[in-house]
């Protein structure tokens, strides 16, 4: 009576480890790219520090800092070409700096000046069309819907661009993410769904709200490849993103990448509970030992990519660039009334 | 000169879409079931334009309405069908938070030339509270959106073409009882500008504002009320709800001194509320009597056609109210 047997398929996720060597990655990327990544990581750190200083002085800026996530966000954005798109998320400025935005116009915008990218109307809701950086919208998760559309547009215009859609562990639970990932996969769109898992949505650890620990696992449900990567290790991130960009560009459809990372600071500068409140000081200090920038600098010195002297020069140049950018932003004017009460439509 | 042809409202929209798709290879369709299509508007377009430009979307209204924003902002022109107006509420974030605000927030770097066809609007099919609402007042509240609501095949073709060519997001409302309605439509190309209303019937006693299906109901009763009661109604079809052509309306009120607004939506916070408030603000001195709004009862829409007549303004009620004003 074999025919009468009921067969139920049991679905289990399969993890498969891939191994890479640092030297091989360094060789693959070369000095120029590795240096670019260092510059962008350090620049992001210094920009965050500068913003914090400006806020202390009373400058009105909304800050969701990148501290701790440079190895993830900045590196991923630095892999892209100028024509590639990013739909950025709420956390950090790594996507802006990785994409090569002009720091003068960047600071001007976050300080609401008329010389900013969005003429002072966006502030932290930053966009730069010339870099194909989409607006940093304020609704969590909407990124995936928007990115799916950019993917459709790329496919229709038949270019070889890709779109990177960034979201956190928090917004990974929004219906939008599900809808966008499904549309992207069903249409084989060139999108990198990049889930930056820093473990906290505002003050809430993802364990309290999220059924699975590894968000990259969700790729299975969308029929796309998924990767889970150490977001504190820039080498791992650059390798995974570089390979994924290549895959997406060749028309194989979207990819989900989860980076495991950590938010060193609070949600915003007003967050008084980030160090001993909703998370223990011990936990924060343990993660801080894994500073992605320190780790990266050690590695590139070890691999003889750059010397101590070259690194110090890079750091000094960035400080100078930021100083000039802030001066430019400070001396720029605030927009006039006309700027704010028009511009909802082309002609109104 | 080309010929005129009698076609349905659904065919008029389809012809407008085809004309624009032929002109611009980046105009494309997306929506649920648009290959077969419940309203028949996009039926056959897959065969004509191929799957790349006629994209079937999953039941993910918010997702694909947001996708349309991303696509519109990066060099293409999507025409999105929302199968029922009610589904617009599911896609409220995509339309009201994303499409409406992209140009402004980005400081004019990005814009969003998308057309949302808010199909299957209104009562009349007995489809109940989740498939029959008149939700056109809702998006009117969001600067950045344009809203059009044609009442005839002629207006539908001219307005869909203007909507597709607009550089900002346009919501194109389609009342479900209009799809089969026939009318004369020129075969030559023409556009109806967004924000331009039209006097559909000239009269001297009272100005009646209506749009969509209700406009046609009012047109039907106007002759009856004229021959039986001697009341000569001037009927104004704004065709666009945002921007709204108040100039033409004010000229009419100047002549009649009376204003009635007939809508299928509920009264509180409705389209009529906005028109009445605006007229009262700008031109109250032109009015001889109080403004009268005729709208649906303040309840969700019952399922089944039988219940509709108790909720929606019907001919009898409209006539009674007009008599009270005149």
Task: Describe how the helices and strands are arranged.
The complex is a heterodimer of chains A (348) and B (326).
Chain A lengths: L21 H35 L13 H10 L5 E3 L6 H5 L4 H8 L31 H16 L5 E6 L6 H12 L4 E7 L2 E2 L2 E2 L20 E5 L3 H16 L5 E6 L20 H8 L3 H11 L5 H24 L5 H5 L7
Parallel strand pairs in A: 1-2, 2-3, 3-7, 6-7
Antiparallel strand pairs in A: 4-5
Helix pairs in contact in A: 1-2, 1-7, 1-9, 1-10, 2-7, 4-10, 5-6
Chain B lengths: L3 E5 H15 L3 E5 L13 H5 L4 E3 L4 H12 L4 E6 L9 H8 L2 H4 L9 E7 L24 E3 L4 H13 L4 E6 L6 E5 L11 E4 L4 E4 L2 H18 L3 E5 L2 E3 L3 H11 L2 E8 L4 H13 L8 E5 L8 H7 L3 H11 L1
Parallel strand pairs in B: 2-3, 2-4, 4-5, 5-7, 6-7, 10-11, 10-13, 13-14
Antiparallel strand pairs in B: 1-8, 6-12, 9-11
Helix pairs in contact in B: 1-6, 3-4, 7-11
Q: Could you give the order of the helices and strands of chain A?
A: HHEHHHEHEEEEHEHHHH
> How many separate structural domains of chain A?
1
This entry's quaternary arrangement is: heterodimer
| Rg from alpha-carbon coordinates of chain B | 19 Å
Keywords:
heterodimer, A: Rossmann fold, five-stranded parallel sheet, two-stranded antiparallel sheet, 11 helices, 7 strands, 9% strand, B: 326 residues, alpha/beta, Rossmann fold, 2 domains, 14 strands, globular
């Amino acid at each position: 009576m074999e025919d009468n047997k009921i067969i139920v398929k049991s679905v289990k996720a399969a993890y498969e480890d891939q191994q890479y060597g640092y030297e091989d990655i360094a060789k693959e990327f070369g000095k120029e790219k590795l240096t670019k990544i260092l510059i962008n990581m350090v620049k992001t750190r210094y920009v965050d520090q500068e913003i914090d200083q400006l806020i202390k002085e009373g400058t009105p800026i909304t800050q969701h800092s990148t501290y701790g996530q440079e190895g993830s966000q900045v590196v991923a954005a630095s892999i892209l070409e100028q024509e590639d798109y990013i739909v950025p998320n709420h956390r950090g400025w790594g996507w802006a700096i990785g994409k090569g935005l002009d720091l003068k116009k960047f600071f001007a915008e976050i300080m609401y000046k008329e010389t900013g990218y969005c003429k002072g109307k966006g502030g932290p809701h930053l966009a730069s069309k010339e870099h194909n950086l989409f607006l940093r919208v304020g609704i969590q998760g909407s990124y995936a819907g928007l990115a799916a559309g950019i993917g459709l547009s790329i496919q229709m215009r038949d270019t070889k661009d890709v779109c990177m859609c960034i979201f956190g562990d928090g917004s990974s639970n929004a219906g939008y993410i599900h809808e966008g990932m499904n549309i992207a996969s069903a249409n084989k769109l060139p999108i990198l769904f990049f889930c930056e898992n820093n473990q906290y949505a505002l003050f809430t650890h993802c364990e309290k709200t999220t059924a699975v620990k590894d968000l990259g696992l969700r790729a299975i449900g969308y029929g796309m490849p998924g990767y889970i990567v150490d977001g504190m290790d820039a080498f791992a991130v650059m390798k995974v993103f570089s390979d994924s960009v290549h895959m997406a560009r060749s028309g194989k459809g979207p990819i989900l990448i989860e980076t495991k990372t950590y938010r060193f600071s609070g949600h915003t500068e007003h967050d008084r509970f980030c160090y001993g409140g909703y998370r223990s000081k011990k936990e924060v200090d343990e993660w801080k030992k894994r500073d992605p920038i320190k780790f990266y600098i050690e590695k590139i010195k070890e691999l003889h990519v750059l010397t101590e002297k070259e690194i110090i020069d890079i750091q000094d140049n960035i400080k100078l660039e930021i100083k000039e950018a802030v001066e430019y932003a400070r001396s720029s004017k605030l927009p006039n009334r006309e700027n704010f009460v028009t511009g909802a439509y082309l002609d109104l | 000169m080309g010929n005129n042809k009698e076609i349905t409202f659904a065919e008029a929209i389809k012809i407008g879409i085809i004309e624009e798709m032929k002109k611009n290879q980046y105009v494309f369709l997306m929506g649920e079931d648009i290959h077969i299509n419940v309203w028949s508007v996009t039926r056959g377009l897959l065969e004509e334009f191929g799957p790349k430009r006629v994209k079937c979307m999953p039941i993910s209204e918010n997702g694909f309405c947001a996708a349309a924003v991303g696509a519109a902002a990066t060099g293409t022109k999507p025409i999105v069908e929302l199968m029922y107006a009610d589904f617009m509420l599911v896609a409220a974030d995509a339309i009201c938070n994303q499409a409406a605000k992209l140009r402004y927030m980005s400081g004019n770097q990005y814009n969003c030339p998308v057309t949302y066809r808010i199909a299957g609007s209104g009562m009349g099919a007995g489809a109940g509270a989740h498939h029959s609402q008149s939700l056109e007042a809702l998006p009117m509240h969001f600067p950045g959106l344009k809203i059009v609501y044609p009442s005839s095949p002629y207006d539908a073709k001219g307005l869909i073409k203007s909507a597709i060519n607009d550089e900002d997001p346009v919501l194109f409302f389609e009342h479900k009882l209009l799809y089969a309605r026939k009318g004369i439509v020129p075969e030559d190309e023409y556009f109806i500008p967004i924000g331009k209303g039209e006097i559909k019937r000239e009269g001297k006693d009272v100005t009646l504002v209506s749009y969509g299906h209700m406009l046609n109901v009012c047109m039907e009763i106007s002759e009856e009320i004229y021959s039986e009661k001697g009341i000569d109604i001037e009927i104004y079809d704004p065709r666009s709800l945002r921007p709204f052509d108040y100039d033409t309306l004010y000229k009419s009120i100047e002549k009649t001194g009376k204003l009635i607004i007939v809508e299928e939506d509920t009264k509180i916070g409705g389209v009529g509320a906005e028109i009445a408030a605006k007229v009262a603000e700008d031109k109250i001195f032109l009015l001889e009597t109080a403004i009268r709004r005729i709208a649906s009862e303040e309840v969700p829409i019952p399922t089944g056609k039988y219940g509709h007549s108790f909720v929606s303004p019907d001919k009898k009620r409209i006539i009674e109210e007009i008599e009270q004003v005149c």
